[in-house]
Amino acid sequence: MMIEVQDLTKYYGPHLAISRVSFAVAAGEIVGFLGPNGAGKTTTLKILAGYLTPTSGRARINGHDVVEDSLKARRSLGYLPENVPLYPDLTVRQFLDFAARAKGVTGDRRGAELKQVVQECGLSEVVGTRIGALSKGFRQRVGLAQALLNRPPLLILDEPTIGLDPSQIVEIRQLIKELAGRHTVILSSHILPEVSQLCQRVIIINRGQIIASDTPENLSRQLSRGLRVHLAVDGPVEEVLAALQGLEGVQEVSPLGEHRYLVVGRDDGDLRPELARLVVGRGWNLWELKAQEFTLEEVFLNLVTEEEA
Amino acid sequence: MSGIGAVVRKELTIYFATPIFYLVGFCFLLLGGYFFYANLLYYNLLSFQGAQNPQLAAMLTPQQMVFRPLFGTLAIVFLFLVPLITMRLLAEEKRSGTAELLFTYPLTDAAIIGGKFLAALLVYLLLLAITVIYPLSVAPITRLDWGALASGYLGLVLLGGACLALGLFASSLTENQIIAAVLAFAFLLLFWLIGWQQELGAAGWGGLFAALSLLEHFENLARGVIDTRDVVFYLSFIYFFLFLTQRQLESRRWRA
Question: Of chain B residues 16-35, which have a CB less than 8 A from chain A?
Answer without folding.
Answer: 17-18
